[in-house]
């Protein structure tokens, strides 16, 4: 297997919403330092992208919105609303906002082009996954929707069918919205129910429109869902939908905010669950012709204890260098974490208690548990549109 394309530029750290905002670039800094301390990417270089151009951004975003981001970057609003979703508590304006957001977007565009042209089989941009940004507004800490831009780039470069899987605790609304009527793109999102969590979308009834009916798949999980329930939902819905769609490239978003320690949501996954998710996604990617796979970061607000471990496992999984979960975390990294976040307790090992693959009972069609009812509702809504039997657990 060829080494993956690993996208990174320290300039991405300037995507800093400031103050005590939960979306801190510390997550990326500590992830790279942990991956380096554990030798995950030894011998694999990192590729710095060019910022996405206005022409590239216009593939998803309106020119008026890009102009507004530029203007707000030059004149930060100190929290005052300036239009297009900018200057809010979620998306405050900050100096250099356009430049850093365009750099992150450019990273995902670069990765997509490399996959489309056979220059790489796998790629990863952990600064990417900003899935809430809409065509004409910022939302949910996201300025430019690099995930949607990557998918659009793949299509423009000749890829016929793209599947997008979003495992962030929040619905991947911006990506779904961008391709809701495009039959060439399958969007799959597993997230906490919109009854309980931002952005309030991602109901099972959202299945796509027109010729794209059946290409939006939403699994709305009940609060408190843990590793086994989450993974059961994944395996009961995602492989069947992806195989039926027959994509040429897989794009995945790996928000780490489904973890039990995340302060902004209510699911109860562990780093061990995240590790199994990444490996399950890799198995799906390996089924595709050429195994083309682009992995992106996303949310995650336990920036010391959770995100660096989750995404270091993700980097290792993409690179085909799976880490032993029992690996101890070097003291030098723990000291660095305390330097950056003094009032935290850095983890000591790369697991949360499970060092083997998590045993997941296969969904058998029952609806006894809330998570099983969520599975059934999604399958009932979308599987017939994909030519699958919602009552057959083999599909």
Automatic annotation (TrEMBL):
Keyword field contains Transmembrane: no
GO terms, biological process: acetoin catabolic process; epigenetic regulation of gene expression
Pfam families linked to this entry? Hist_deacetyl
Does the keyword Transcription regulation feature in the UniProt annotation? no
This protein's UniProt keywords = Acetoin catabolism
Record's SUPFAM superfamilies? Answer: Arginase/deacetylase (SSF52768)
**InterPro entries for this protein:** AcuC (IPR003085), HDACs (IPR000286), His_deacetylse_dom (IPR023801), His_deacetylse_dom_sf (IPR037138), Ureohydrolase_dom_sf (IPR023696)
Q: Which residues form the Histone deacetylase domain?
A: 21-317
MF term (GO), any: histone deacetylase activity
Q: In which pathway does it act?
A: Ketone degradation; acetoin degradation
Q: Which family does it belong to?
A: Belongs to the histone deacetylase family.
What protein does this entry describe? Answer: Acetoin utilization protein AcuC
**Annotated organism of origin:** Nakamurella leprariae
Tell me the lineage of the source organism: Bacteria, Bacillati, Actinomycetota, Actinomycetes, Nakamurellales
